[in-house]
Amino acid sequence: VFPSVPRRVVRESPGLVREAAHSHRRALATPQQALVYGVSRMHPGNASHLTCCPLRPSACELYLSQVTNAIVSADSIPYEPLLVLGIQSQILAIDIRFMTTVVVATGNPGKLAELKDYLKELDWTLALKPEEIEVEETGVTFIENARLKASEVAIATQSWAIADDSGLSVMALNGAPGVYSSRYGDSDAERINRVLRELGDETDRRAEFVCAIALSKPDGTIVLETEGRCPGSILTEGQGAGGFGYDPIFFVTAQGKTFAQMSNSEKERFSHRGIAFDQLMPKLRQLKL
User: Fold this and answer.
1) Residue 276's closest CA among 121, 160, 104, 119?
2) Number of other CB atoms surrounding residue 74 within 10 Å
């Protein structure tokens, strides 16, 4: 399980296991987290684990302090992770693994949750960028802004960082609102009305949503990037009550509905962001952080 994650199997007595956890405090202060797995005597086929946050390394010690008469088994443990906060029964095995934390270049918890859904099959821990880090989006394209955010956040945090930049591009408006999509008005309604006003009676209403994604190493080097594009058209008025932003006026021809009329699962699959992650995932699965 998780073959790309470096493993450290502790083969010691309970006291030495706790001592080992204490010695890893400094490691836990780096951009890593630890997964502490314990296979209980009561349920030897199941592995229970606790994720130890870098800011709370004492959680590992608290967890391990509950281990009595620990006997560490062979490497091949049938893992079936079940998140728990404590183990009351005896432990047959302890496996401490360190996971790389990837910082998401956003301060928006909603976007963090969305990226967790797309990246859930990867053995990554995702974290919001610190509030004090502000990146000026000076790029003239979506991919330039994605690169900029990923690189600057990676350098500032000395961690791997992933960023995206997305928006609406309308052909008859020479690609506007483009990288200014979120700044095309003070509210969703204002932004929609501005696009409809500028389009007017234009018959060419072709448009596309674009999502650019970039992944940066801690030194700021971009190692992976992609752009997902979802073609469609701009309606003369909104349809559907879901979604946000320009979703009510963006009609996806292939699906026969607007983003605002789609279910969450449909939008996740057919949207520009879904397309971008579909393109990126094969490379992400092979990447060793």
Assistant:
1) 119
2) 8
278 is catalytic: no
Residue range 39-44: average pLDDT? 38
Q: Which residue has the tokens 């606790």?
A: 50
Whole-number mean pLDDT of the chain? 74
99 band by pLDDT with thresholds 50, 70 and 90? low
Rounded Cα distance, 194 and 51, in Å: 47
pLDDT digits (tens, 9 = 90+) for 207-251: 999 999 999 999 999 999 999 999 999 999 999 998 889 999 999
Phi first, then psi: what are they for 21, rounded to 5°?
-60, -40
Kindly name the residue from 95, 164, 165, 247 that is annotated as catalytic.
Answer: 165
Stated as kind and residue range, the H or E segment containing 273 is helix 272-286
Is the Cβ–Cβ distance between 107 and 50 less than 8 Å?
A: no
Q: Show the DSSP H helices in 126-219 as ranges.
A: 142-157, 188-199
CA nearest neighbour of 160 among 171, 168, 169, 151: 151
In angstroms, the CA 156 to CA 251 distance is: 39
